[in-house]
Amino acid sequence: xxxxxxxxxxxxxxxxxxxxxxxxxxxxxxxxxxxxxxxxxxxxxxxxxxxxxxxxxxxxxxxxxxxxxxxxxxxxxxxxxxxxxxxxxxxxxxxxxxxxxxxxxxxxxxxxxxxxxxxxxxxxxxxxxxxxxxxxxxxxxxxxxxxxxxxxxxxx
Length: 156
Known about the structure:
By secondary structure, this protein is an alpha+beta fold. 42% of the residues lie in helices and 13% in strands. Helix 2 (48-66) packs across helix 5.
């Protein structure tokens, strides 16, 4: 079972309905009901964070199809910004992602930072390539392989 299907089955089991799956919406003051002003498949409906999450999921699905054993014990998360800036004596570098190895029964984790990746990319295609490169680089760090072995197009 994939992580996405686990998430949707968990939502269904708890009875939680996502806002975009509801049929009727409330108006701004919460008293009356109204329908959505535009379709949920329209570009305006998706937020920047939702679009970014969709790109991450697409890359994880692509890599899982090619290397299911690599992603079996790896969790992937998205945060807006890195936890804190470096102290004055540390070298200043921008984190786009971080990898945390498995320890004490917890699986390995890859954390992508949305804002730095969005700032570095020029357009959506460039953002998809940056996301792909960061995920592949962190997987290579966690597994001890070369990034080119995981994805031959890495770095292009």
